[in-house]
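FAQ

Q: What does a record look like?
A: Structure on top, sequence underneath. For example:
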């Protein structure tokens, strides 16, 4: 660090450099969830007095990002600029020099992170993450839409939220969240893509994902293990998994990998959907997974103030009652959600329908329903 170089300046440059380093310990890398100082991203800090300008300094911060062209580099540098410029003890002009870590330094960082996490981070004693697996008996009932809106609701309510698109064959979360980028690869460790406050991973984010995927058995299970163990999730408050419809390999894999997961069953009102939805809940008889509740989607369509039950009525309640009887504990009907073309259009436009354009939770009835569902799940 440099020495004080001018009597006109009233603060020791060494003190400024130490103070700035301390302030940067509160700048968090958005992907890794750690401070830039803890991650070794601050290579040097130099404060230089500005001649003939009392108590004013140029401050150069040398930043080493984890990868060249890091997609969040602007976010990080803006935070560093703010931490320097808002220093209360002197007038500081920040100068940020950005490079990337050497291969050896990055390898050491990734090795430290992997050693800390080692394997599936959600299946260790003391983990506080609440895990909700969203299931349905058949496709077309809006399971992925419910997952996306529920994840967005948790994030809007302030929870650190993650979501895994475990529907390998029918992945749709990237589109619902407007994601068009791939996860950042740090020497074999992937950073989830963050959209609308939710950390996301999906096979649909990778090149070639539009081609037919014919995975079965062990390979399918390995895909889930990779999503859990090879992605840096940090310590989210909530993890949601959008399961494939039915009771196939992925549902069993989730139960084996995440025995603390809670199942939420999605259905629509008509018997053809509710009857098979019961089967998706009965998987809990074979694996250590609790069914937390039922959500009935497309319950009605509102037309000129009248609720039209296009798909009939009572499906969610039937699923609730049958699962309660079969499993021997209460499986409540937790929500009934409307059929609204405007909501579908918003979701297909890349923004979860439960959010306003600024990312805040809607304050109308639809937003209130998802808020109530999220709060009930976390109770």
């Amino acid at each position: 660090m440099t020495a004080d170089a001018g009597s006109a300046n009233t603060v020791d440059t060494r003190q400024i450099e130490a103070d700035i380093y301390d302030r940067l310990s509160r700048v968090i890398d958005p992907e890794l969830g750690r401070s830039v100082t803890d991650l070794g991203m601050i290579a040097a800090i130099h404060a230089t007095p500005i001649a003939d300008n009392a108590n004013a300094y140029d401050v150069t911060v040398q930043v080493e990002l984890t990868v060249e062209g890091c997609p969040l580099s602007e976010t990080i540098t803006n935070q560093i600029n703010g931490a320097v410029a808002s220093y209360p003890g002197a007038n500081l002009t920040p100068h940020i020099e950005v490079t990337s870590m050497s291969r050896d330094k990055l390898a050491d960082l990734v090795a430290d992170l992997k050693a800390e996490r080692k394997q599936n981070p959600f299946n260790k004693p003391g983990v506080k993450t609440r895990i909700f697996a969203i299931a349905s008996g058949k496709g077309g009932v809006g399971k992925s839409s419910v997952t996306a809106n529920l994840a967005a609701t948790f994030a809007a309510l302030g929870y650190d939220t993650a979501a895994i698109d475990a529907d390998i064959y029918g992945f749709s979360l990237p589109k619902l969240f407007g994601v068009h980028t791939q996860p950042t690869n740090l020497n074999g460790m992937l950073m989830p893509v963050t959209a609308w406050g939710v950390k996301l991973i999906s096979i649909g984010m990778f090149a070639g994902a539009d081609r037919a995927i014919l995975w079965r058995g062990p390979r399918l299970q390995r895909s889930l293990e990779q999503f859990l163990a090879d992605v840096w999730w940090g310590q989210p408050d909530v993890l949601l998994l959008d399961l494939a419809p039915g009771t196939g390999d992925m549902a069993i894999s989730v139960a084996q990998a995440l025995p603390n997961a809670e199942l939420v069953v999605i259905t629509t009102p008509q018997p053809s959907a509710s009857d098979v939805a019961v089967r998706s809940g009965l998987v809990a008889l074979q694996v250590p997974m609790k069914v937390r509740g039922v959500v009935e989607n497309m319950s009605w369509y509102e037309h000129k103030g009248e609720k039209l039950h296009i798909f009939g009525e009572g499906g969610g309640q039937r699923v609730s009652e049958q699962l309660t009887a079969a499993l021997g504990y209460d499986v409540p009907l937790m929500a009934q959600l409307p059929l609204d073309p405007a909501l579908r259009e918003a979701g297909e436009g890349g923004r979860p329908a439960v959010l306003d354009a600024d990312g805040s939770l809607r304050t109308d009835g639809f937003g209130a329903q998802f808020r109530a569902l999220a709060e009930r799940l976390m109770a």
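Q: Is there anything notable about this one?
A: The first helix runs from residue 13 to 24.
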